[in-house]
Specification:
This protein has helices at about 5-30, 40-50, 60-80, 85-110, 110-150, 155-185, 185-190. The chain has about 190 residues and is mainly alpha-helical.
């Protein structure tokens, strides 16, 4: 079967590295963005605090909300990846930027321990899920674009889609324990 085997795994690792690099570029952008231009993030944080009354810690509805929100974001990114891979790239860049900018705001108001407690418990699961899912989106998107312009490569599309659906399923599966951790474990680290 085309698209599976050692060379396919090596290519997928390259897409993982690409996803991590774009996310890291977003973090760098967030770090160099002047804090006065990130005012809308403060507004978003205030909006999220209002939302937290509906989506509270230690509730199964919160797990479902977080899981479905993150899954929908990955699925949309995957589905629209053949459009120049814009959505996967923007998703990674924006998530990295928001993480860095919000971290700066949190560090001004709280402590490093509070920040790490709010990110690490679920982030160690959620970030790999993001990278795996967006790498699958990049792989599919680039393959779809290549097959559009090179008819001799069209046989690659279906095997590539099948392989990337497996990676996407793994990413979605990781989002469930990440949502559970974010709902039941992370709040224990950020209380008070």
């Amino acid at each position: 079967m085309k698209g599976t085997g050692p060379s396919s795994v090596l290519r997928y690792r390259w897409w993982i590295l690409t996803a991590v690099a774009i996310f890291t570029a977003g973090i760098v952008l967030g770090l160099v963005t002047p804090s006065d231009s990130t005012g809308f993030i403060s507004e978003e944080i205030a909006s999220l605090e209002k939302l937290s009354s509906l989506v509270a810690p230690f509730k199964i509805t919160t797990v479902l909300f977080i899981f479905l929100k993150n899954t929908l974001a990955l699925l949309l990114s995957f589905a629209f990846s053949p459009v120049l891979c814009l959505l996967p790239a923007l998703t990674l860049l924006l998530n990295g930027w928001i993480l860095a900018a919000a971290s700066g705001i949190i560090l001004e108001q709280r402590s490093l321990g509070f920040l790490l407690g709010g990110i690490l418990p679920h982030g160690v699961i959620e970030l790999p899920a993001l990278f795996i899912g967006e790498a699958a989106a990049f792989s599919l998107g680039v393959t779809a674009m290549v097959t559009l312009f090179r008819s001799e490569k069209r046989g690659m599309l279906l095997p590539n889609l099948g392989q990337n659906l497996k990676y996407l399923a793994l990413a979605v599966a990781l989002l469930l324990p990440a949502a559970v951790t974010e709902t039941y474990v992370t709040p224990l680290f950020i209380r008070g």
